[in-house]
Structure prediction request, 414 residues.
Amino acid sequence: MVALIDCNNFYASCERLFRPELNGKPVVVLSNNDGCIIARSNEAKALGFKMGDVFHLVQDRIKEHQVQVFSSNYALYGDMSARVMTILARFSPQVEVYSIDECFLDMDGFTELDNYAHTIRNTVIRNTGIPVSVGIAPSKTLAKLANRMCKKTGGTCVLESDEEITAALKDFEVGDLWGIGRRYAKKLNKFGVVTALDLRNLPLEFVKEKLTIQGVRMWYELHGKPCIPLKLKIERKKNICCSRGFGKATNDYAHLREATASYTNRLSQKLRKDGSCATVLNVKLYTNAFKVGTPQLFPTISIPLPHPANNATDLIKAAMHGLKHIFRHGYMWSKVEVMATGLVPEGETQLHLFTNYNGAVNNKVSKLMDKINRHYGDGTLRMAIEGKHHQWTMRRAFLSKEYTTKWKDVVGVR
DNA sequence: TCTGGGGTCCTAGGACCC
DNA sequence: TCTGGGGTCCTAGGACCC
Prediction:
């Protein structure tokens, strides 16, 4: 048996923690750049606000219903997530942190699962203030389903017997299954497969043909035979990316240089944190595809690095070279993306045959900057080429404080 | 004026090897 | 008249997840 614990309306719940007067009121959290709605309290859901609603298009309704709006505050959500996960790890020796707000626990050998689920839920809410739902079932896919079933009531759900599982599958839309997206749902609907039970009852060969090997795994999982193991080890990432839209589109090359350098610096931090070096750096520019009638271009370049690197200096140098190559006049650029690929473990990098360059000095500088920034706060030391972040930095008009990660933002109690 | 930012896995097809 | 039978690696594109 496996449990899936999922935080309810996670970002909205985090914001409410430090604004208790908002309990029972509609709250939404926006994506980066205050673009779309990405989290909603139950009250906001009830008012009809949808995931992905474009903020400036629903602004009138937001005002009308006095919905409290927040910009994304990942410093806060990341820290609250770590607290929740730490508590959850007490409840099982085998834990997979699946996303910022979800966690699988191995429940093999555990008994009285109903009681245990309640204990988990009550402990998390008592110790962190974050409400969670707990779904327990024989496989990950079914645990996901169990979790979804109690999401509305915000409680717990254990699916164990065949009768319980069959009854649950019967009322569950196939498109809501973990692993079935919009495309597959449409495809399956065409074959008359509407519910999760319909999918489970299909012949295995048919599933394999239409949904490939992933569908076969899902089919077994729906039969209560686990096929997707818990990921207990955190693996090094295969790609690392830093991509962000600008607060305002620009055609100014100087701004693009600043933004690209800044994202690349951030990318290099992520690489160092993961213990990886890049062998290839990709740079891509975007115009705003939503603006019909304006000239569109999405130029991209892939730069093989002379030496695997994760220091800011070498990567920014490569990125500037790439940017120069793909930049064109006559376009309004709205976003830049830098991506590190061909990652190799730091310390296992291949030296260059014809030079004795090994990046030692640049690596030292970056590591020192990490240390200082960890101690004095992100951005204390930056690369000069990043500029002052005025023109292109993202919109965050409704940002809350870093209540749990910044001394000056900690709430005082009298 | 304003529409997110990350990731993963799988398959088919091409290029190459002996 | 007739032209094999294994492999690997890489990439682009498509699907999915939060």
About this structure: Residues 30-36, 38, 52-57, 59, 72, 212-214, 237-245, 247-249, 288-290, 337, 394-395 of chain A lie near DNA strand B (CB under 10 Å from a C1').
